[in-house]
Records
---
Amino acid sequence: MPLAQRWLVPLLLVAVASVQLARVSFGGQSRWRGGGFGMYSEFHPNKNQIWLRALEHPDAPPGRLTETEGAPATRRAVARCLRLRSRACLGELAATLPRDPTPRRLEIWQPAFDARAGTLSRRRVAALDF
Amino acid sequence: MRWTTPTPHRLAAPARSAGVRLLEKTTVADRACGAERLAAAAALAVQALIFVENFPFPWGLLLAAPALLLPWTASGWRSSIAWGLFALADVVPLLTRPLFVPNHLFLMTYVALALCLAGAGEGRVRSMAANARWILAGVMALAALQKLLSVDYSGFVGFMIATGGFAEPVLGRGAAAAGALADNAAQAAHFLASVPVDGATQALRVPAGFAAYARGAAVGIVVVEGALAALALFRPDRALFHVVYAGFLFVLGLVRSELLFLGALAMLGLLIACARPSRWRWLYVAILLVALPAATVRLARSASSLGEALDRAGLARRP
């Protein structure tokens, strides 16, 4: 069996998965995406949330950004940031939001479940002031 | 080596029609029962559905049409060019929307590339099976590795069990259990819809000893995936491999109805089983005969290119 016929596909699979694992470890990428076959190893990215807070009004409730509301560019950026939980991605998302002179903060929250206590919680995994 | 006069009843059709002399022991048509064609047809059916799922209207349907026609051709289903083109088409969404495509698209791309490289010679079936074996071993090993590396894995499994996301048909039997699962799902949805606050938690109704149960399930999944990776790599011709793998697919179908992924995994099993004459292939065919029609129905009811085509024709039936 020729070498390429034998090894090209397994090597390609390993190469793609290695890139995905590196992006998960260092870039905040969801394990569910990118060819690493990490489905069901953590919460699905659609359970992640992105919230926008006005820093000058800490008591005001933050607004949630979703994949289905807002300008198309914002929706695309939200969808991307749900799967790529990083400050860099939040920077791209901030650039699509309407301009506002007051300082604001974008936050990505991810659910977590403690099976011992039986409690569901959320933790902030990335934030960006802009 | 001895040459003999060919007699029509001893030669297979291609040689008879060509009227050529063959070695007495030449194998003209190995596996004439069509195992290779069966495996290719299964791969083409899965490929067609993956096109429908991942390409917008009308491209999904335009790409799916040749994939569905090839099994009916004389030799198009084993054409390296056709499989190469399918692999190229698969790569388009992988490169343009890598964060949004499902993992079975990656899996199908590897299979299409493997079938493209397998050539048309007598080693094709062996090459197909060898690549399918490596792909399956890789997928299972990665699935296990990702779970071992994830800090949230055990908790995630617990959450899925507690809210009916895993094994609901089994765990949800009985009014009390079904009520607890539904309550937990509603409470979780309500909590996740609220404004997030550091340290805020939501208690779910779980039985005593739930953590050990969840951890046991989490470990069990990793062990089975690891075992399947090892069996696919070292013992793909043993009955044990097919029993464990078919059992895994059956349970996967019950626990989570990821029909297209299930179909893609069954297709890998079929490609492996077709390397040797064995009846195990019919087990995978049976799984595919359930999974693929169900996946088609689901795609028809979703925002896929098939769903949009039915929508435009006024035939859509959304859930």
Note: The two ends of chain A are 57 Å apart (CA to CA).
---
Amino acid sequence: MSSQAHEPQAESNLYGLMAEFDDADTLMKACEAARDAGFKKMDAYAPLPVHGLSEALGIDDERIQKIVLCAGLTGTTVGFSLMYYITVISYPMNVGGKPLFSWPAYVPPVFETTVLFAALSALIGMCVLNGLPMPYHPVFNNPRFEMASTDRFFLCIEAEDPKFDLGNTRKFLEGLHSQEVVEVAK
Amino acid sequence: MTEQYHSATAPVLAPGHNNKSVTEKIAGVVLTQKTPKGWFIVFAITFMVMHAMVFSLGSLVVRGIGLWGINQPVGWGLDIINFVWWIGIGHAGTLISAILLLLRQQWRMSISRFAEAMTIFAVMCAGLYPVFHTGRPWLAYWLLPYPNTMALWPQPRSPLVWDVFAVSTYMTVSIVFWYVGLIPDLGTMRDRAKTMFGKKMYGFFSLGWRGSARHWHVYETASLLLAGLSTPLVVSVHSVVSFDFAAGIIPGWHTTVFPPYFVAGAVFAGFAMVLTLGIPIRKLYGLEDYITDKHLDNMAKVMLTTGLVVVYGYFLEVFFAFYSANEYEIAMAHNRFSGPYSAMYWALILCNFIVPQLLWIHSFRRNTTVLFIVSMFINVGMWLERFVIIPMSLHRDFLPSSWGFYMPTIFDWGAFIGSIGFFTFMMFLFIRGLPMISIFEVRTLIKKPAQGGGH
């Protein structure tokens, strides 16, 4: 499968063009240049989180914060309702004449359900928003991509981008101090 | 270690590393480096020791809880001491990875993975005790709130029920936090694994991580949110554990200092355990570049600080016993100083108060031998602290007619020693199969050569 990466591809079977970089700074400059050149469908790959890369690529995704907030509030509601149901409705127990609706005693368990729901939603939300698990992805067709998790940096402009053109985009990527530009099969 | 850095300028990663060298070293510990002989020795011994627990708890299931030394009035013995001790040890992992992340402490990066794994295995050990303490562990699910044909519910006004919520949430969130931190490194392991089995296993658990900028963007926010959630969680867990005692009326338990004093004690014990395991493992695998003198120094300082908070707790316990003018509290204080268990109390003062004062000395904070010995004292001291709190308060409460005595049996000790074996066994299994240092975080510590002059 990976040997296909080096052979010229029919445009219909092309995922995109991938350029390799030595370090994060060059990658960042390349991303900024690609964004300024008007490319939209592209992604950068790095072995570590690079600060400013999201801005350089125009990624502005704040959904995870909202997911976790909503899940946390759901946890609060579920926990509080459960405590209320147990102590007031299903199993009312008079302890020393104290009120059945003893909400201060609910605080620790309700706090725990809040954290539990929010933390699980952070994991699940991260996976869903990133499309994980995804065992196959075209970028793995580049045999050099193994190094993306060690010390190499990549920028891939996808063939679906309206401005994509095999010859011109290759020239554009080669002009960004990249090491190598390869075609990546779908 | 020949070079002496001043603590303010000492690096958290030895100079001269790049992305490739850190990846090769840390992943290599698992994938390519020959497993040191020491690993096999510890693995074999702890595997055997673990069976002391398997046998003790297995016997308990078959023959009943009478095998333990607990009685009336001492209904809580080694089982609850060990529960609190293990939970406390686990807290260092969450503190290092969550609180220090929020405080942007870079030195946490090379020890956080290791400490988080410790959290998980320590909470596993802790969780066993209350389950077996019920005497009928096969009915432990009765602790959970679920609709049942008995029409019964757990009592949410009881700290013991809060404990079920706190510990089970803590366990779940610790695993989630640890796993989320592992995902990018599992991708690295997948790409570097030499065997097909390794590639498949790491590939499966890495979920197809490819380090895309979009991934990192969501990932970093999710990690930060998890850290923000874990921080109050870790404080709440040991506070709730302390409520198990503080909400009771037994002399020596009924005090408001318990929650902060327990949380500080947990951090104190946890850092001691990180050093106890970290110092030999660092030596075994030659990780001095990653766990530097700076780390040792910082951990020693955290131990010294939290140790002093704990000592303040000991002081306040005595002070309030006399200040309250309550004859039962005063009797409890005298019982600690000169009662039948007084040796435990004075050993506690030695281990947790006197010995840690060595850490004031700068060169001792960087001396692995001294640190190891001090942390062993603290491990013992924190266990003694729980002994002082639990059986010592229970065995003599209000009426002399209901006084008693507690002596652990061989089955108590078997379960305890065995759990130490289990914990160490799991830790060694972990360092053999997964990167024990967060590779991608250590990459962010690398200083760019172009900037120069920084070090």
Note: The first strand of chain A starts at residue 14 and ends at 21.
